[in-house]
Design goal:
120 residues; seven-stranded mixed sheet; four-stranded antiparallel sheet; 11 strands
Length: 120
């Protein structure tokens, strides 16, 4: 019943842009009480935290590798998290996952991921 569904991935040339979406449903608490995060994992590499956004004050944090190029946002009325990705580089190629967590309860809830491939 509980779901986080990512979409918006695909193939893009270096320098291009993509916008990822993550739609939540069936959550046991109001969506606006969850910290939202985007992670990514490339083949043979560790999962990496890309960006996070807080609840009420919507404070954001970014990995150094994406700061200035990516923007995380949320629309609690639509139960949705977004990741706008600009100036994409081949090293951004990975499966991107969204995560929602209430306070520090375990590792939160995870989506299935969406593939982003940056290549010419």
């Amino acid at each position: 019943q509980l779901q986080l569904v990512e979409s918006g991935g695909g193939l893009v040339q270096p320098g291009g842009s993509l916008k990822l979406s993550c739609v939540a449903s069936g959550f046991p608490r109001p969506f606006n009480t969850y910290v939202l995060r985007w992670y990514r994992q490339a083949p043979g590499k560790e999962r990496e935290l890309v960006a996070s956004i807080a609840t009420a004050n919507t404070k954001t944090n970014y990995a150094d590798s994406v700061a200035g190029r990516f923007t995380i946002s949320r629309d609690d009325r639509k139960n949705t998290a977004y990741l706008q990705m600009n100036s994409l580089k081949p090293e951004d190629t990975a499966v991107y996952y969204c995560n929602a967590r209430f306070l520090n309860y375990g590792d939160g809830f995870w989506g299935q991921g969406t593939q982003v491939t940056v290549s010419s």
